[in-house]
Each structure stands twice: as structure tokens, then as C-alpha cells.
């Protein structure tokens, strides 16, 4: 029984005969005798169910079907010849795809740094980026729908055996408030800052805004982050009044801008400049927010290995960059 799909050897024979327009010369190029070549071309025609060459005793010409098919076969062979170098690139992590999710806080400090360096070292890798809360990322990872995620610690203990964790950055919380509120608080506290820049860096106490509504993530979506913020109030002997909840940092900052309350956010959110919002350091000693990379322990592709290497390099210096205190 003849094969239903031509093999690459037959296709190469077809292209060589088409270029030489002579079976004898084509056989010499292919380092073979003419009869096996003629038999291979006949077998290819029978497999395809069409005549590729019009043969006479003196000439060989492509049929109209053969002429139309030739460029397609040439493209197919070129692609096949690229399979070996492509496979080697994939094995080295130089090509392929990486599906990466990230929490919104990472978008304002950590993520751009990692993507820049990864893009320089792995320009042929296609990145598939998705913004998602930590809990959604864990679900997507466990289900195998993403390769890795940038999440806020801690990880759920029930997935400890399935997932690997690499801490990257620790940064303090700052308080986001509307400009009007910051000015009122400054006047009440008798601020003596000499400049606007100095005023922005002057620590403020949670007690000064204890009566203001708190804008925060819902606990069900970010329990670790939520509990750290609540602990800040608890250590200060305060009971926060939750006003609004939102699942995106951009939304939280927008609500603060609208005067809906204050928010405790990672220091890197200062890069999210929004009209009517200022960020002030806290005078209380507060825990650090830790962001890290998480992936399935049993499934580490060559591309992911390359990304983890980039992350490890940044992790060595990131804490100092964000000026994060150790707790």
C-alpha cells in the first residue's frame, strides 16, 4: 500500500527534477542512479493523485499542477530544514513561549525590570502576560493554564508540595491619601517641612488618619495582603473602618483620589502617579510586603528556567532597591 502522505525525500527529489528539467542531471545532483529517482517521482505522483511532470523522450517539463505546487513544496522543505535549529533553540530556552501572570502591584516596579532583562537575553521567546490576583494565579498554576506567576506571599499551605517559591522583593507599605486630606493632616500635625518634596517624605502616623475609611482588597482575594494591613492597624491599637473594597490597585488609588478614604499600598505604587493622590511613609514600624515568583515544581520548561535565572539575579539586589526593612 502506498503511503498517503509524501515523505521529505520524495519532495526533495521533485524539486531537484523540477530545477534540472532532466532526470539524468537530477540523479547526478542527488548522487543516485536515474531508475530509482524515476520510480520515486512516479510514487509521489500516485500518492498525490496528479501528474507533476510531462515527460517525452527528450524533455521533462512541469505540468500546470506541478508548477503551482513547486513553490509550496519549496516552502515546506525550508520549514522542515529549520526544525533542527528550532528544536535546539527550544531546548536551550532561546525560543518558545512563557505564560506569566502577575499581581497589579508588580506592574509598577518589579515586572518592567524583569521583562526588560528577559527580553534582552531571550528576544525570540513569546511572552503571554495576564494580570490576576494571587488567588487566581494559584488556581491557574495548579490547573496548568499558566507557567508561572508573580504573587504576594504567603502561598496557600495546601499547595506547598506542588509549587516552588522564589522571593524577589520586600518593600514597606506607604499610605495613599487624597491631596486635600494630606494637607488637612499636615496642618493638624503642625508639619514644618520646608518643601513639597520634603513634605512627601515626612512620615505620617496611622493615628492621624484612624477615622478615615480604609480602601482595601477583599480578603477572599488577597488574604495575606489583607491580613498584613489589618495587623498594621492592630499593632497601633487601632480598629480600621473598611469603606470600599476593590480588586485592582488602579481602582484603589482612583477611589483614594476621589476622597473615598485612605489605602495602605506597597512603596512601588508611588510610580502610579494619579492626580489628587499623594503617598506618605508611615512612622509606625510596619511589615514588608513580599512579592515572589511561583511555578509548578514538576513542570519547568527551558524557557521558564531562563526566566527564573533572571529573577534570581534581581532577587539579590531588589530588597535594597525598594529600601525594604527586614522584619
Keywords:
327 residues, alpha/beta, Arc Repressor Mutant, subunit A, D-Maltodextrin-Binding Protein, domain 2, seven-stranded mixed β-sheet, two-stranded antiparallel sheet, 11 strands, disordered C terminus
Task: Give the helix/strand layout.
Blueprint: H1 8-20, H2 23-29, H3 34-48, E1 53-55, E2 60-62, H4 64-81, H5 83-91, E3 96-102, H6 110-121, E4 125-131, H7 134-142, E5 148-152, E6 163-178, H8 179-189, H9 196-201, E7 213-216, H10 223-235, E8 241-245, H11 249-257, E9 263-266, E10 277-281, E11 288-296, H12 302-321
Parallel strand pairs: 3-4, 3-5, 7-8
Antiparallel strand pairs: 1-2, 5-11, 6-9, 6-10, 6-11
Structure, explained:
The chain has helices at residues 8-20, 23-29, 34-48, 64-81, 83-91, 110-121, 134-142, 179-189, 196-201, 223-235, 249-257, 302-321; strands spanning 53-55, 60-62, 96-102, 125-131, 148-152, 163-178, 213-216, 241-245, 263-266, 277-281, 288-296. It has 327 residues and is an alpha/beta fold. The protein folds into 3 domains: 8-81, Winged helix-like DNA-binding domain superfamily/Winged helix DNA-binding domain (Arc Repressor Mutant, subunit A, Orthogonal Bundle), CATH 1.10.10; 92-169 and 289-321, 3-Layer(aba) Sandwich (D-Maltodextrin-Binding Protein, domain 2), CATH 3.40.190; 171-288, 3-Layer(aba) Sandwich (D-Maltodextrin-Binding Protein, domain 2). Strands 3, 4, 5, 6, 9, 10 and 11 form a 7-stranded mixed beta sheet that branches. A hairpin with a 4-residue loop joins strand 1 and strand 2. The termini are far apart. Mean pLDDT is 86; it is low at 322-327. InterPro entries: LysR_HTH_N (IPR000847), LysR_subst-bd (IPR005119), WH-like_DNA-bd_sf (IPR036388), WH_DNA-bd_sf (IPR036390). GO terms for molecular function: DNA binding; DNA-binding transcription factor activity.
Amino acid at each position: 500500500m502506498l503511503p498517503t502522505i509524501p515523505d521529505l525525500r520524495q519532495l526533495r527529489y521533485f524539486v531537484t527534477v523540477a530545477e534540472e528539467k532532466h532526470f539524468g542531471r537530477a540523479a547526478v545532483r542527488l548522487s543516485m542512479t536515474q531508475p530509482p529517482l524515476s520510480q520515486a517521482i512516479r510514487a509521489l505522483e500516485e500518492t498525490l493523485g496528479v501528474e507533476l511532470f510531462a515527460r517525452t523522450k527528450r524533455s521533462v517539463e512541469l505540468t500546470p499542477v506541478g508548477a503551482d505546487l513547486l513553490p509550496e513544496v519549496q516552502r515546506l522543505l525550508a520549514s522542515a530544514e529549520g526544525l533542527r535549529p528550532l528544536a535546539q533553540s527550544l531546548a536551550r530556552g532561546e525560543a518558545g513561549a512563557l505564560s506569566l501572570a502577575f499581581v497589579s502591584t508588580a506592574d509598577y516596579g518589579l515586572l518592567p525590570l524583569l521583562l526588560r532583562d528577559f527580553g534582552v537575553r531571550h528576544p525570540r521567546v513569546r511572552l503571554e502576560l495576564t494580570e490576576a490576583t494571587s488567588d487566581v494565579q494559584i488556581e491557574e498554576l495548579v490547573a496548568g493554564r499558566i507557567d508561572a506567576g508573580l504573587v504576594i506571599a504567603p502561598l496557600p499551605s495546601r499547595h506547598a508540595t506542588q509549587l516552588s517559591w522564589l522571593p524577589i522583593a520586600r518593600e514597606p507599605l506607604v499610605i495613599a491619601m487624597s491631596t486635600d486630606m494630606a494637607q488637612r493632616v499636615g496642618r493638624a500635625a503642625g508639619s514644618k517641612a520646608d518643601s513639597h518634596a520634603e513634605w512627601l517624605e515626612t512620615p505620617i502616623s496611622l493615628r492621624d488618619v484612624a477615622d478615615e475609611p480604609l480602601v482595601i482588597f477583599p480578603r477572599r482575594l488577597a488574604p495575606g495582603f489583607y491580613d498584613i494591613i489589618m495587623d498594621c492597624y492592630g499593632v497601633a491599637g487601632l480598629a480600621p473602618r473598611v469603606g470600599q473594597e476593590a480588586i485592582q490597585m488602579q481602582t484603589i488609588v482612583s477611589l483614594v483620589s476621589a476622597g473615598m478614604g485612605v489605602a495602605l499600598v506597597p512603596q512601588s505604587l508611588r510610580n502610579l502617579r494619579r492626580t489628587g493622590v499623594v503617598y506618605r511613609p508611615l512612622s509606625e514600624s510596619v511589615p514588608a510586603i513580599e512579592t515572589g515568583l511561583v511555578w509548578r515544581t514538576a513542570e519547568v520548561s527551558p524557557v521558564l528556567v531562563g526566566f527564573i535565572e533572571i529573577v534570581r539575579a534581581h532577587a539579590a539586589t531588589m530588597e535594597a532597591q525598594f529600601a525594604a526593612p527586614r522584619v
